Structure formats: C-alpha cells, structure tokens
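Please decode residue identities from the backbone states below.
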C-alpha cells in the first residue's frame, strides 16, 4: 500500500509531539506531556455497552439554582466569584480533536465545539469571552480526572464520556452531547466495503487498530477485540497519520472525532459500521465545587433554550453526522426541583 500523508494532520501531529499545536500568544494551550508506554493488559471480550448503569443515575447532575445571575451579581464567596476575582478560567482541553478542539491554521487560534462551550461559561462569569478570559491547557485523555482532582484546571471539556468510574473522582455537568464509537478506515475498495455488523469482536485477527490511551474507546477495544493488534496513538491526529501511512488498518473512537478526522482526509478515509457504544459527553469539575457545577448547568440550559447549542452544532458538525441538526440532549438532575 502506498504511503499517503494529509499534510495538515501530519503537521499538527508532529507539532503536538514537540510542544503542542500552539495558538497565539494571547490565547494559547500549554504543552502536552509525553505519553506513557504501551502494553496494558487486555481483558476478555464482553457485550457492547449502552449507558453505564453500574452506579445509580450516572448521567444525573446537580440542578441549577435558578436563572443565571449577572456577572456582577455572583454570590459572594462562591467558586464563580473566586474565578471572577482571579480574572480568568483555567480549562483542560484537547487541541487535536477536530471539530471539538483544534487550532485554526488561518487564525492560529483555538476553535471547536468544546472550546466555544468553555467561552460561553467564561462569558457568564466575566461578562465577556475575550482571549485572556480562558487559559487553555492541553490535558491528555488519561490525565483529565487527575488534573481536575489536584486543581490543575477548573474545568475540563474534552469529548469526555460520563461514566461511573470517572464519577468517583470528579463531578460532571449535564450531558451536552451524545456520541457513539465507530471505526475509520481507508477508502481502498476493501476495508471500506467489509462487513462491520459484528462489531469489534468480529474484526479480523491481527488487524491493527489505533486508539488513544485513557479513552473509553481503547478500553472497549481491548475488552471486546483481544484478537486485534492495539496501536496507541498520542493523539487522534496521530492515529490518523498512522492510518494514512499504512501503519494502522483502522482508528476507533467516538463518531464525532472520527468525522473530524475524515474531514481532514475525506477522499481516502471513511467512517464505517454502526455505533458500538453510547457516549454521553459532560464537562468535568471538582467534587467540592458543587456551586460551579450548578452554574455550568445553568449555562447549558440557557444554550439549549436560546438556540446557541444548535448554532455551534451547525458551525462545527454541519451535516457530517446527519442531514439535520438534532435537538440538544435533555438534562437529567438527581436533586429535587
């Protein structure tokens, strides 16, 4: 198979390896630490999961206390008041997950569905979403809950699936997006025409499948497809490069991320198969900041009602996941009205 390299993806992947695909000086993402070594043990295959139900009300968050207060009327001593006095929000992101978090090469600024949601949170705190109001920090998938727990960041918005294991370490906002795990393969007349109806368990023995450590996708891949060769990419853009170079036969992660990868190489790659999982995204916040969780949920409620969620969907997802803009996910809360 000849080697093809989509230059934008390769440049970004290489840049991330060195220092992070940086944004401008006024708005920048801090560097990514080195990836841990490969070789985690694999567990036996299991049934394709739906929503995580091993803990009660896993998707239910903390109910907003009411309508959003004005930035100048935040409760004294609250997390939001503290952040406002500090002058900026520290947010954990991924800048290689187009279209949720990426560096726009035309403006050298961070853009994406997750990025703009964080700007909406900043706007609700500070009254504006200027470039100095959010300090973005690149956080590896496997470090997201740790970064929140030890206070490195105030919030994480990084295509992060809400599940019971993570809920033990962090609190989540209400669900702001629903995705599902699928496969990205080369459009070579063979891989793109294969039958994927059997899911991961039916993938051919020895198939080289790339995913990123710390993601729910790689965990499911190892549990359900012990017959494949798991390749760990440092980033999703890095997995795309391995697919383009012929060092991987497929990439597996959420269909939202795969749609972004395909957009970078739409002639030679294609998303295949049905959804293998249910992946509800939430913003992660420290467990001792319940007031901030309620505040963020109030921001999300406002975005659902005023149409801003739909605007962001059309801007960043367009028709890549379907012809119509879906309704935003309904919020679930575990406390009384």
């Amino acid at each position: 198979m000849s080697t093809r390299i989509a230059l934008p993806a390769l440049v970004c992947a290489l840049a991330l390896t060195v220092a992070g695909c940086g944004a401008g000086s006024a708005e920048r993402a801090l560097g990514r630490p080195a990836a841990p070594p490969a070789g985690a043990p694999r567990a036996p295959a299991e049934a394709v999961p739906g929503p995580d139900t091993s803990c009660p009300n896993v998707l239910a968050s903390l109910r907003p206390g009411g309508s959003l207060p004005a930035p100048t009327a935040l409760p004294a001593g609250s997390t939001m008041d503290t952040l406002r006095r500090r002058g900026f929000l520290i947010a954990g992101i991924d800048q290689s997950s187009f279209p949720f978090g990426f560096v726009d090469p035309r403006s050298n600024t961070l853009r994406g569905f997750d990025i703009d949601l964080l700007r909406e949170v900043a706007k609700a705190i500070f009254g504006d979403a200027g470039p100095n109001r959010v300090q973005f920090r690149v956080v590896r998938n496997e470090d997201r809950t740790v970064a929140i727990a030890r206070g490195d960041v105030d919030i994480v918005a990084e295509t992060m699936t809400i599940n019971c294991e993570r809920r033990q370490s962090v609190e989540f906002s209400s669900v702001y997006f629903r995705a599902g795990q699928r496969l990205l393969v080369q459009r070579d007349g063979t891989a793109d025409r294969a039958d994927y109806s059997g899911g991961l368990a039916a993938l051919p023995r020895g198939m080289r499948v790339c995913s990123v450590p710390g993601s729910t996708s790689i965990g499911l891949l190892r549990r359900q497809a012990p017959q494949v060769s798991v390749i760990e990419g440092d980033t999703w853009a890095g997995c795309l490069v391995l697919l383009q170079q012929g060092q991987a036969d497929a990439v597996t992660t959420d269909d939202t991320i795969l749609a972004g990868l395909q957009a970078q190489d739409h002639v030679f790659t294609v998303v295949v198969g049905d959804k293998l999982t249910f992946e509800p995204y939430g913003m992660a916040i420290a467990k001792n900041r319940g007031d901030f969780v309620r505040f963020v949920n109030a921001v999300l409620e406002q975005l659902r009602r005023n149409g801003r969620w739909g605007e962001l969907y059309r801007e960043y997802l367009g028709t890549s996941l379907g012809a119509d803009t879906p309704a935003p996910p309904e919020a679930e809360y575990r406390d009384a009205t």
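Observation: Confidence is low (pLDDT under 50) at residues 1-28, 30-49.
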